[in-house]
Design goal:
392 residues, Peroxisomal Thiolase, Chain A, domain 1, alpha/beta
């Protein structure tokens, strides 16, 4: 199998519209959460969200605008060449063109004819197709809709094809934009906090929703070295599992999540003692955080006590279909800079979350390898294994 490395990374977040601006803000302990302005939903009790400073364009949704911007940054001026049939695009999707459909429905309900052309040209794979056109990619493409584990599963699928020698280059990631349907849906589940979310805290009361995009450039190691590419980290493998427990709640003992993490360790031939960081799913919902900490202990055993945990959702909110890619981006940059971004507002940890969850402030530490977790509704669990690139 080919070794696979990360050679590009683009981020559009509620903290900044680029990678380094986002990462600097994360390490400084800032968040991108603020009053909800993207949507007019005065009846909803929660009015806090992570919103990006971009707007949709004519014939381009916010998801597409953010994803294309992140792709340009990930490429960094690199122009892919060679056989276009060996370039793949793998994306996690959530709302995609749903905001456009909502506008059309509102027009119709108001008695107007509405602009049917816009929603007709929007589909879950719109972002994937737009990225492929920019890249000139004629190879395999996949749009994964697996709820909140979508983009991490997309990354895993891209790794598989590259490791198997089927591709020379892949772009993987996800994009998300706020919309009324998902916002009202999470609110109806009483999963949204009216305050800024507090992962792993005793008084956590739910998540905040967010938007943005992450795009990650993946290549076989030999090709990356041959072209002198910057290497951010190595992708070792991934694991997936199914709880088969509940439509929205995780298994209370974290059994399925632990299996996904253990599979990522086996696939990546990674010893638990080598894992220094877990970029957690960390939603700040009462059911998730304790179960995830149990899962980490199940998967890592005694090594769990030496691991640093962080939740990006304390800084961006929950970006749904793009959440796994955001967690991966944080882990990749942590491996590059040997620094862990903080879990914000963690002032009173839940005793059930008895791990080092990096409260309040970033810290420097040795990070040899990392796991990235994304656990979705329906009990769909994915964990990705990454290693620090030391030039060997």
């Amino acid at each position: 199998m080919n070794r696979v490395v990360v050679t590009g990374l683009g981020i559009v977040s509620s903290l900044a519209l680029d990678r380094e601006g986002t990462w600097s803000a994360m390490l400084a302990g800032r968040d991108g959460l603020g009053p909800l302005s993207r949507l007019d939903l005065p009846a909803e009790p929660a009015q806090v969200a992570g919103q990006v400073a971009l707007e949709p364009l004519r014939h381009q949704t916010l998801c597409e605008v953010a994803a294309l911007r992140a792709l340009v940054e990930a490429l960094g001026g690199f122009q892919p060449s060679g056989d276009p049939a060996r370039i793949g695009v793998f994306q996690g999707a959530g709302t995609s063109g749903l905001p456009v459909a909502e506008v059309y429905l509102e027009d119709r309900l108001a008695g107007h004819r509405g602009r049917a052309a816009e929603p007709a040209y929007q589909s879950p794979c719109t972002v994937t197709d737009a990225l492929a056109r920019v890249l000139g990619a004629e190879g395999p493409r996949a749009t994964v809709m697996n709820a909140c584990s979508s983009s991490l599963l997309a990354l895993g699928q891209a790794w598989e094809r590259l490791a198997a020698g089927e591709l020379d280059l892949a772009v993987a990631g996800g994009a998300e934009g706020l919309c009324r349907t998902t916002y009202a849906g999470f609110s109806s589940l009483k999963a949204v906090d009216a305050r800024k979310c507090r992962p792993f805290s005793r008084d956590r009361a739910g998540l905040n929703l967010g938007e943005g995009a992450v795009q990650i450039l993946l290549e076989p190691l030999d090709r990356a070295l041959a072209r002198g590419a910057t290497i951010y980290a190595e992708v070792l493998g991934y694991g997936g599992s199914m709880d088969a427990h509940h439509a929205t709640a995780p298994h209370p003992e974290g059994e399925g999540a632990a299996r996904a993490m253990a599979m990522a360790l086996r696939t990546g031939r990674l010893d638990p003692a080598e894992v220094d960081l877990v970029s957690a799913h960390g939603t700040a919902t009462p059911a998730n955080d304790g179960a995830e900490c149990l899962a980490i202990r199940r998967a890592l055993g005694a090594a769990a006590d030496a691991v640093s945990i962080t939740s990006t959702k304390s800084q961006f909110g929950h970006t749904l279909g793009a959440a796994g890619a955001f967690g991966a981006a944080a882990a990749i940059l942590a491996l590059r800079d040997q620094a862990v971004s903080p879990t914000l507002r963690l002032e009173d940890p839940d005793p059930a979350c008895d791990l080092d969850c990096t409260p309040l402030a970033a810290k420097q530490r040795r990070i040899r390898a990392a796991l990235v977790n994304a656990f979705a509704f329906g009990g769909n669990n994915v964990s990705l294994a990454l290693r620090h690139w030391s030039g060997a």
